[in-house]
Amino acid sequence: MCGIWGYVGNRPIQVENAWDGLCALTDRGPDAWGMYVEGDGRVTDRQSLSVESTEVAIGNRRLSILDLSAAGTQPMEFEGSWIVYNGEVYNYREIRDDLRELGHEFTSNSDTEVILHAYAEYGSACVEQFRGMFSFVIYDAESGQIFAARDRFGIKPFYYSESNDRFAFASEVTSLLDGSVVDRELDPISVDGFLTFGYVPGSRTIIDGVRSLPPASTLTHDRSTGDTEIEQYWRPSFDRQDQDGDLRGLLEESISLRLRSDVPVGAFLSGGLDSSTIVAMMRELSDNNREDLHTFSVGFESEAFDESSFAETVAEQFETDHTSKVVGPTDIREHLGDIIASMDQPTIDGVNTYFVSQAAADAGLKVTLSGLGSDELFFGYPTFDSVSRRYRAAKYLHTIPKPVRDVGGRLLSRYSEIIGSSTLEAAGDAVSAKSAFGAAYLSARGLFSQQSRSRLLPETSRIDWDECVGESAMNQLGVTDDRNVVSQTELTWYMRDQLLRQTDTMSMTHSLEVRVPFLDGPLAEHVLALPPDSKARGEKDLLKETVKDILPLDVIERDKTGFTFPFAEWLRDDLSDIVEDAFSEQQLSETPIDADAAAVIQKQFINGERHWSRVWALTVLSLWIGEHLHEDER
Length: 634
Known about the structure:
alpha+beta; Glutamine Phosphoribosylpyrophosphate, subunit 1, domain 1; Rossmann fold; 27 helices; 18 strands; globular
C-alpha cells in the first residue's frame, strides 16, 4: 500500500513542487519513498535531486507490506518503463509463475514487479488478470506514453488533471493542490453534489479541473499529442449463466488471498454478520489458527448507541486480541482537525473508520480486513426494499405528464417552506423529478432537496442528480430486476464514492491498509449473478446459511443494525460551539454557502425538525474549505 504522485508534460514543473506533492502523501507511505525525475533518473534521497525543474516526475510513498526489503521500493523500471503503484494484487504469485514460464526473471518478491512484467507481456489486457485493489501508472520513458489503471470496484483512488501540455496524477486530490499543479478552486457542481448525497459523486471531484478515473478503467495519455483515452475493462454482470464455484469456497479463497502479507493482518470486528464471518474464516485459514489475531471495534460512552458487547462476544468466541475504542464527544473535539485534514474530499461519513483505524495503528498493525461490500452484494441495506417500493410508486406517478407534475412539485415545495416540512420538500423533488428511479433512490439516500440546495447555494451551478442516478442505473446491461438496479446503484454511488473513499482516506491517515474480501472479483461476480430472490430472503439469509456452521448462533439470529454515532446529541450539546463556529458569517463568507439559509437549517436542527446529518454536512463543508483551500491562513 502506498501513495503515488506524478507529473508528465511538455512544460517544466519545479522539482520542489513535485517533492511537496509527494510529501503530502507521507501518511500513506511512511516507510520509504522514491521518484523518477527526467534528468536525474531514479532518486531515493532528497539530496540526490539535482535538477531544479523537469518535465517528468513520478513518485511513490511506500507502506511496506510485501517484500519488506529495499528491492520492493518504487519507482521500479523494466525495459525502459517505470511504475508507481498503490494497492495489492493478491494473486501475484500465480501470475508470476505464469510469467516465469514465459521467460521472465524477477529480482524481488513484490507484486509491483509482477504488474510491470505483466504489462510488458500482455499490454493493457494485464489488468484482467489482477485480483485485488490497485491504481498504478506505467510511464514509457522512450515513447512518453502513460498507462494507468484502477481496480474493478474503485477500492483504491486515482485522481488526475490534464491540459494541452501536461498530465498530473495522485492518490489524493489535496496532494495535487500541495504540488501546485491545480488551483485551489471549488468545482461548483461537486459542491451541489455533496449537499445532495453527503459525498462528492461520480468522476468529478471537489476541486475544479481534477477528475477521478472510474473503477475498472484504464487510461492512456500520449505526452507528445496530449491525447487521453479511457476504456472500461470490466463491468458487473447480473445475467451470467455460468456459476463457477460455490459461495463458501469463493469466500474462503478471497480471504485466504488477503492474508498474504509479510506483516501481521488484523480485522475490524463489529460483531455483525460480515465482520464475524471474516474473523471466523481468518481463524480457520491461518497456518496456526491459535496465533495472535488482533481485532478492533468502536464503542460509545452512550449506552443507547454502544454495541461493542457484540464484538466482544465474537472476539471471545474466536480468542482474538480485541480492542474496543470507546469514543465520546471529547475525542471528536480533540481529533476533529485531523479528521477534516484527512478528508481528501468532504464526506459526512468516516469518523468511525478514523477511530477504529487509529486503534489498529496504535496496536502496531499495518493491515486489517473489513466486511465492507457485503451489504451491496447480498441486499443487506433497508434501501433495497424501500427504494424498490418507492420506484414502483414513482413509475406510476411518472405516467402523469411532466408539466402537470412540475406544477404539483412547485406547490408541495412552496407549502413545505411555509410549514417548515423537510418531508414535503423532498416530496416536491420526487414529484417533479425527471427520472422515476432517480427520484426513488434520492428519497432514500439523498441529503438536501433541490429546493434546500437552491437556498444554500444560490450562486452555484447544479444539475438534475435524479436524472444522473437514473441514467447510470438504466444503462447497466442485463439489469432487469428492480433489486438488481438498486444493488448496481449502491455499488457505483454509495459504496464507491462514500464508503470506499472514506475507508481509504481515514485508514491511510494512520498508515493502515484495509482489505475488503467481499469485493474479490470472482466472489462478487458469483453473488451478483445469483437470482435476486435468493438474496432477498430475510436479512442476508443466503450468507447466513453459507456460514452458519462457523458462527455463534447470536450472530446468525441478530437483526441488522446500522452503525450510528450519537451525533444528534453531541452536535446539540457538547459540540455545539463547533457548529456555531462553522456556521458563523465569517467562516461561511469563505464558502459558497448562504449564511441566512444555513442559519435556518441550524435552527430547525436545534428544534428537532432536521436530521443531524444536514447540520454535520454543512459543518464539514465549512471546515473542509477552511482547512484545504485557504492556504495562506493555515
